[in-house]
Amino acid sequence: MSEKRGKHIAIYGKGGIGKSTTTSNISAALAEAGYRVIQIGCDPKSDSTTILRGGNDLPTVLDTLREQSRVRIEDISAIGFGGVLCIEAGGPVPGVGCAGRGINAAIELLQELKVFEEYKPDFVLYDVLGDVVCGGFAVPIRDGIADRAFVVTSSDFMAIFAANNLFKAINKYAPSGGARLGGVIANSIQHPYSQPLIDDFAVQADVPVIGYVPRSITVAQSELFGKTVIEALPESEQAGVYRNLARHIDENLDSVIPKPLNGPELKKWARTWGDRILAVETGVVQKMESI
Ligand code: ADP
Ligand code: MG
Is there a single domain that holds both residue 202 and residue 272? Predict the structure, then answer.
């Protein structure tokens, strides 16, 4: 493998939880701070970098490799906001093959084309799907591609479940050179219980929460313009939240090996919150023994 340049960071999380939005805003904030950034969409959805590029489409690495025998970097990349180099790995033909192939093919091609040597990134961000538990999903953390992983979760149980699965994968691969966890990014904070619930899950798994991103209309508004919040509404509080996340990822290099909960532990923990959510939400403590 050629020499690795820059900090390589993988962002995981359940589908639809806000990975691409969060990753793109972090890329935009890092670029705004003067860093050279590459963002690689590793989700077959192939929309990771859309809001860095005015909402436009970008040919994926896998599609281009299927169509052309010789691929140049300009065929599969575009310069987005702040000079961020945007790449979409793409996916297999639906129903055939493994999503991990797209990630591997993309990384191999970037190495072959010497993109890291030539672009000299300070940061490479991999935006990875998180609810598939096949081997492909673990490629960036397993094969020495990323140094640190972060997980985006809301307070929804399915998102927590996906985060816990990532913890299991890190726990398995980190001791043999895989990525470690930089922390949890709590997204879509909107209920009084959202933050305490995510905090408590993080305590159970012995991992840090590195930031809390409110559910905000500024995100929807910016998305409709095909932009990140950093670009569309740079003075907003939400832009400040993303800048703080970017600063944390830049300045704080701490990482941990999580202690994932096993199935019964996770279920038991979730049930304690079934009671507490009502208590936090209404101020009334309810016993819901039937749950
Ligand atoms: P993923 O990449 O995890 O599949 P996306 O980043 O595409 O998820 O986000 C899914 C939807 O949720 C998008 O429409 C996005 O604008 C919205 N979204 C994400 N984070 C927030 C937030 N903090 N506030 C409001 N909307 C959000
Ligand atoms: Mg996405």
Answer: no
Ligand nearest to the Cα of 23, by number: 1
Residues 6+ apart with CB under 8 A from 220: none
| Residue 168 bears catalytic tag | no
22 CA to middle of ligand 2, Å?
9
Site to probe by mutation for ligand 1, drawn from 19, 21, 198 as the one with most ligand atoms within 8 Å of Cβ, is 21
Same domain, 122 and 249: yes
Least confident among 41-45, 54-58, 164-168: 41-45
Q: Which atom of ligand 1 is nearest to the CA of 214?
A: 23
pLDDT value at position 92?
74
Closest of 131, 165, 156 to residue 273, by C-alpha: 156
- Asked if 268 is an active-site residue, the reply is no
Same structural domain for residues 253 and 289? Answer: no
Domain residues for the domain of 282 are 263-291
Active site residue 45: yes
Q: Which of 47, 75, 131, 275 does the annotation list as catalytic?
A: 131
Residue 19 catalytic?
yes
Nearest-angstrom CA–CA distance, 225 and 245:
23
pLDDT in tens, 50-105: 999 999 989 999 899 989 989 999 999 999 999 999 999 988 776 666 777 778 88
